[in-house]
Specification:
This protein is mainly beta. Helix content is 9%, strand content 56%.
Length: 75
Amino acid sequence: MENSRPLDTLNNARNKRVIVELKNQKQFVGKLKSFDIHINTVLDDAREMIDGAEKRQLGTVFLRGDTIILISLAD
């Protein structure tokens, strides 16, 4: 199925592991649970990553959409 809109692509990533990079260069890896039209995003089993190494485990996190610059499938 072709994704015609960006939110369709994001919706197809729901319940999959994603990498989220923020404007401050922080990266989080976790399972994409939900998002809204502002790309405010909730990740489960989230981990903060620095230079590819895990810094800390965070569990469920809310990331504000205007801080996100990239969301990509992790696997």
